Q: What sequence folds into this?
């Protein structure tokens, strides 16, 4: 069975615009149909009901956009990586754009951090007011948040697992960057933190945009 | 010229607060976006149910692609929002919008609804209201939007005649284009709505209800239905004569979120040769016409290539009646196997389900098999003209079991005309025979038990069937018969599922209702009926209260036997099958006598008049 697959290719893509409302599971199905349309020589699982085998390094939360997503699948023939990218872009729906493809190097387990750009808008608060409160809230030595896991809810100290930077207020909106723990062992979703912040301070955003901009390893290198 | 409101920004603020927002965003592969300033006619194709249901519907896909193939027309999809989304839309003042442009549909030219089942009537009113339109056709004075409706329930559209400007009878491919042409010329000429409707009524297949006066006898039955302003006395439905030449889409909109039927679909034939007397589809879609295998294969390949679907179904009322099925499957397997595409064959019959056929289906996926004997005893099956014998049912199940299936689902109906208690018990007796058969098979699948699911629907008499004259069993009677079913079951291998009788009762009342029901539909909607096809949202009380408030007796519509010479609310609509034929078939049913299928012998239903030739040969 050696001829089964040639390479595991990792495709990097952006997810932007209204496609952010498509859940991770729906994206998996959508990408698998796109691969079928592309006619790329993609490996199918064996067995009675063969299907395309795709994995995603770090699923993206519903409502988030991203400029650094990746997915893996196996090719059964050797192909120039540019061909993979262009063939995918021909069949991707609006909002998904592949920008690089390469043989997979690292395992998803090596993912440790992710960077996010966050914009919040408030109907009833001033951006400066919220900025001050947020910096104060994030600056504490311990930041207990309730996190839901497979074994139910538990309280963890989020302080060592995230930081915010470049906090800028403009009118009734707030913009900042966040780096947060990511990966299969501990994943801290920005919404979890901002919900906790809103709960404690009352500064709940009426609209929020989150863009994931980087997925990083322990050594803070881009996941590849 | 349009003053359209775009809801894109409004949606941004709310979509993360609702379940499955993918239903409300558009942007799917295959969806068609045009420049609004470069089209003459904007058409909102509305499905009066939620996205997952509407996106499974083949007719919408055909008409969507066909209208968009015209440069001067932009057709968009619109579905009923689920309860959570509707609440937010009403709270934030977001009007109903088209998924392609995200423009509010209130200023579109034509709003078209598809009428798939009676219980969706209130959803239509709700969608018109959400769009910001008056639900009453008479109060909408402008040429746009014109509200039109087609689909199977258009064969008796009287219960919603007050709300819809015109109905499209029969197959839509040619009819829709002719309507759009007329609309466009009236719009460019600045004509009034009244003038457009008068002209539209001259198109074969267009029924403008406001051009007909209905009068009644003292006993509540209809005295007459009279046309005015030059409208035809009888409106004939439209058909497409040659299925190999008619438009068929090469691309579907592929939903992100899973639809009920989420796969490529190719229609292989229209109409049905069987003539089961309860089945409305079997009569209103006549005459029988097939595509050629080559056409089907070409359609299927194009669709799978363009959509990326890994399953294609060959759809029709009875796919095993397709005369080129075996060669077609051979041809298709040549590309479906290497492409890892499943072929699904819904609507198989028990009397021609061969081992070969099963292996073809099984070559791609093995799950449970479903068959519809419809009735438990031979006499009852003869009454409904379901020309299937017990041996055939058992033989089919045996083929399935020997092929490795251990789960079989059998569909039946309860409350059929002339039904006796022994016929009801017969349903379970038949299921028991299937169970016994399994255990007596020497080569049954090893180590597994058998599972026979008996799914029992309440019979609803429908227009344009030989049973249109029949009373529906009362709910008490249906409930009593459901008890008999449960009491007859003596094996744990049989599980019984049955439908809710209030839903069937209302369906029966609406299916054969007349115009006096319009206020009831409005009442039920006002009282909160929006998605009555869903048990979670359905409340029969709203309809009972409404009937009382509107002075209607629902039993008059559901449980009354009609005389053969009674004027039916749909008698001025012609679907090809003659009333004389329906009466003949009704009489045969009462004599427990079957009618051969159309391939064996023409029963003279009259539908071949639409074709202008004999259906076969």
A:
């Amino acid at each position: 069975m050696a001829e089964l697959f040639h390479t595991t290719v990792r495709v990097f893509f952006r997810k932007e615009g209204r496609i952010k409302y498509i859940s991770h599971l729906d994206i998996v199905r959508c990408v698998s149909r796109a691969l079928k349309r592309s006619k790329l020589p993609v490996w199918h699982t064996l067995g009675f009901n063969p299907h395309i085998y795709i994995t995603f390094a770090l699923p993206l939360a519903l409502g988030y956009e991203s400029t650094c997503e990746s997915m893996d699948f196996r090719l059964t023939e050797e192909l120039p990586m540019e061909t993979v990218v262009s063939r995918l872009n021909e069949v991707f729906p609006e909002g998904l754009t592949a920008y690089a493809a390469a043989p997979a190097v690292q395992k998803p387990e090596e993912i440790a951090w992710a960077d996010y750009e966050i914009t919040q808008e408030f109907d009833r608060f001033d951006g400066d007011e919220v900025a001050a409160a947020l910096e104060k809230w994030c600056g504490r030595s311990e930041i207990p948040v309730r996190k839901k896991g497979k074994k139910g809810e538990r309280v963890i100290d989020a302080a060592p697992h995230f930081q915010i930077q470049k906090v800028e207020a403009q009118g009734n909106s707030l913009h900042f960057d966040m780096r947060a723990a990511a990966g299969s062992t501990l994943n801290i979703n920005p919404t979890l933190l901002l919900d906790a912040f809103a709960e404690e301070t009352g500064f709940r955003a009426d609209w929020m945009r989150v863009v994931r901009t980087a997925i990083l390893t322990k050594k803070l290198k881009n996941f590849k | 010229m349009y003053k359209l409101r775009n809801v894109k920004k409004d949606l941004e603020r709310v979509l993360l607060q609702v379940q499955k927002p993918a239903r409300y965003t558009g942007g799917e592969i295959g969806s068609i976006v045009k420049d609004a300033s470069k089209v003459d006619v904007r058409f909102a194709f509305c499905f009066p149910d939620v996205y997952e249901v509407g996106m499974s519907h083949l007719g919408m896909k055909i008409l969507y692609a066909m209208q968009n193939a015209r440069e001067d027309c932009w057709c968009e999809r619109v579905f009923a929002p689920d309860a959570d989304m509707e609440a937010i839309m009403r709270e934030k003042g977001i009007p109903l919008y088209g998924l392609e442009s995200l423009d509010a549909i209130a200023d579109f030219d034509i709003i078209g609804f598809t009428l798939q089942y009676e219980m969706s009537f209130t959803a239509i009113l709700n969608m018109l209201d959400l769009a910001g339109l008056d639900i009453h056709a008479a109060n909408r004075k402008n040429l746009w939007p014109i509200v039109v409706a087609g689909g199977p329930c258009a064969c008796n559209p009287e219960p919603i005649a007050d709300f819809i400007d015109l109905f499209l009878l029969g197959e839509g491919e040619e009819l829709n284009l002719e309507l759009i042409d007329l609309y466009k010329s009236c719009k460019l000429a600045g004509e009034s709505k009244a003038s457009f409707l008068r002209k539209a009524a001259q198109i074969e297949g267009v029924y403008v209800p406001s051009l007909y006066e209905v009068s009644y006898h003292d006993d509540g039955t209809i005295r007459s239905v009279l046309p005015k302003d030059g409208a035809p006395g009888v409106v004939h439905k439209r058909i497409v004569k040659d299925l190999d030449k008619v438009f068929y889409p090469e691309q579907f909109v592929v939903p992100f979120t899973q639809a009920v039927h989420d796969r490529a679909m190719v229609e292989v034939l229209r109409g049905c040769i069987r003539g089961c007397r309860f089945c409305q589809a079997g009569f209103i879609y006549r005459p029988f016409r097939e595509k050629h295998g080559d056409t089907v294969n070409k359609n299927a390949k194009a669709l799978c290539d363009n959509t990326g679907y890994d399953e294609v179904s060959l759809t029709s009322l009875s796919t095993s009646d397709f005369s080129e099925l075996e060669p077609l499957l051979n041809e298709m397997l040549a590309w479906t196997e290497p492409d890892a595409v499943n072929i699904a064959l819904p609507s198989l019959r028990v009397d021609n389900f061969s081992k070969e056929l099963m292996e073809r289906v099984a070559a791609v996926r093995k799950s449970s098999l479903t068959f519809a004997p419809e009735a438990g005893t031979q006499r009852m099956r003869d009454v409904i003209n379901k020309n299937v014998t017990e041996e055939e049912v058992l033989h089919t199940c045996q083929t399935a079991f020997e092929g490795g299936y251990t789960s079989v689902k059998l569909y039946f109906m309860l409350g059929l005309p002339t039904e006796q208690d022994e016929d009801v018990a017969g349903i379970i007796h038949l299921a028991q025979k299937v169970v016994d058969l399994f255990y007596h098979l020497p080569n049954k699948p090893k180590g597994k038990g058998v599972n026979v699911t008996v799914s029992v629907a309440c019979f609803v008499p429908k227009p344009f069937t030989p049973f249109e004259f029949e009373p529906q069993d009362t709910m008490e009677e249906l409930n009593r018969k459901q008890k008999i079913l449960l009491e007859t079951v003596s094996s744990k291998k049989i599980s019984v599922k049955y439908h809710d009788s209030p839903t069937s009762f209302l369906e029966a009342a609406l299916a054969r209702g007349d115009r006096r029901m319009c206020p009831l539909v409005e009442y039920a909607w006002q009282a909160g009926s929006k998605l009555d096809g869903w048990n979670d949202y359905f409340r029969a009380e709203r309809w009972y209260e409404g009937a009382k408030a509107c002075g209607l007796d629902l039993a008059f519509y559901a449980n009354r036997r009609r005389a053969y010479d009674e004027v039916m609310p749909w008698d001025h609509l012609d679907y090809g099958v003659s009333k004389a034929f329906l009466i003949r078939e009704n009489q045969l049913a009462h004599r427990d006598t079957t009618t051969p299928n159309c391939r064996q012998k023409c029963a003279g239903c009259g539908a071949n008049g639409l074709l202008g030739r004999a259906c076969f040969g």
About this structure: The domain at 264-499+576-590 of chain B is CATH 3.80.30.20 (pyruvate-formate lyase- activating enzyme).
